[in-house]
Amino acid sequence: MQLDIRLPMGVLFLLLGVILIIYGFVSDPVIYVTHSLGQNVNLIWGSIFGAFGALMLWLARRAARKP
Amino acid sequence: MFHLAMLSSAAPGSGAVSLQLTPVDYLILGSYFAFVIGIGWTIRRYMKTSSDFFESGRSLPAWICALGFIGANLGAQEVMGMAASGAKYGIATSHFYWVGAIPAMVFVGIFMMPFYYGSKARSVPEYLKLRFDEKTRTFNALSFAVMTVFSSGISMFALAKLLNAILGWNFDGCIAVSGLVVLVYIYTGGLTSAIYNEVLQFFLIVLGFLPLVILGLQDIGGWDGLMHNLDAYSDTKDMPGAWSSSWSHLGSAAANPIGIEWFGLVAGLGFVLSFGYWCTDFLVIQRAMAAKDMNAARRTPLIAAIPKMLFPALVILPGMLAIALYHKGGTAGLALPIGADGNPDYNMVVPAMLSKYFPSGMLGIGLTALMASFMSGMAGNVTAFNTVWTYDLYQRWFKKDATDAHLIKVGRVTTVVGLLISAVCAYAATKFNNIMDMLQLVFGFVNAPLFAIFLLGMFWRRATGHGAFFGLLIGTLTAAVFQGNTLPVGETASLLKGGWMSVQQTFASSMAQSFWMAIFAFTGCFLGTFVISLGTKPNRTTDELRGLVYSLTEKTRDAPGTPWYARPTLLGGLVLSATLVLNIVFW
Fold this sequence. Notes:
heterodimer, A: mainly alpha, rod-shaped, B: mainly alpha, Sodium/glucose cotransporter, 2 domains, two-stranded parallel sheet, 71% helix, 1% strand, globular
């Protein structure tokens, strides 16, 4: 097996998740009223992106440990 | 191919939709580009042989090949074109999935992959050489090579035109950047890099568009609200209920917005076009042939069929939501630009939805997902092009004794040249739109009959090289004659629209015309190959046909103890059953 794709994928989604979560905290709440029905989608989907990234990293790590 | 036809329509017109990006959106976009290039750069050191570069060393697990298989197909035509069709035709667009894709994906996985993978052919044209002869291979390789660079160019054009329209970005800059990014990751990492990026793009597109669907559904009042508004919209088009059902309006072509009756749809789209694309197009087959073993290769299209089956929720639903919201109007409605024909500009459905529901941050994700879909479409075409050019044309006609290192070099140069030709096509599309449409039409003539020779070649040992080659020509000619004698209602006769010989038959829509053209082309090719094969001597011995023809190939059996999810036949049966249920639920 060459590079495990779950590794870069995990890092990217985790990074995107962190960016969205931080932006979700610091952004003006008005943008969520005008766009996303009042929901802070950056916070919600940032968490989902981050969790997905972490899952990919965990799977890659588990696979690397196998003999 | 119906996919190509969609691609052209995905090129947006001038729209009033405009997106405002903020630094966080650029940060997200930049992160994605850095990773895409980084993946190619990281795996460049694994590219030691031409097999590594063109076939991923036949080493990838089934799940990666499956997501690459589906990711290569998840190009712009899928995301933009299917959303546009969802708005234009409603739930019936799902026929492109549940009729026009899944059955063919199951068929290629269970029945055809043993020949492609087992024959050790490096490409689909090479299989044709082994099974038939050199001229059939070269004909297929040439038409495929031209079609792939042309498709890649159309993707490039559509991306640049879209970004220019909604973001005001420079057209030349968009062509250069998208071409360069794809170039770098394929040049360095070959097919593996393309497949890895397709996997990444797959998840990005799924997670990037899912919030759009959820927000749209919440806004319209859930599924019931969507159906209520779609029915109200259908009433204004004098086709009550047509947007909210997939089969019940297919009794006659006049009763549904697609303008097709059930037989033309099932035989034209569900059989000829769908099987012709999923079972013979090297762009997707190449992903399965990169698998680590026969079982993984066979499961590739079957695993890919699972997300494919569910994609209507991701790509068609936004279109249905858009037209329902557009019809609803008012403050909760959706503003869609109006096209020249007085109807909404369906191609702007996705940008309009992004603009409405995604604030900064998620907007960067949505735009990245959109760009990923364009680039995965381009990369799929370019990797298929460089393999077919290097193995089937260059090595065969110019340098038979080429060393392995030389083939890698040729593959890399071909990647550069392929993208340059794509860029030329993209610029040509800005000036000569009719020529592009004309080229697509010609490819339609060549591709429509193709499945017939694979079907006969794999399941009838008596089919000969002359039979296949001339059968293909007869099928292509049948398509051209059919198009020359038919016309969609409301169109004037022309080379592009048809009827340029005489108008013997009219169709309710151009889609119906192309489905029926495919049926005739397939029949012409099938009969031509059959008759000519019977009249010519077999050019392959029984031994040569082993592993290439069904009756002469040992059946692949699952090893004892293989779990259910690793058994291709069982997996295929489950996928087909689930598809049947979906068809019934949304009848």
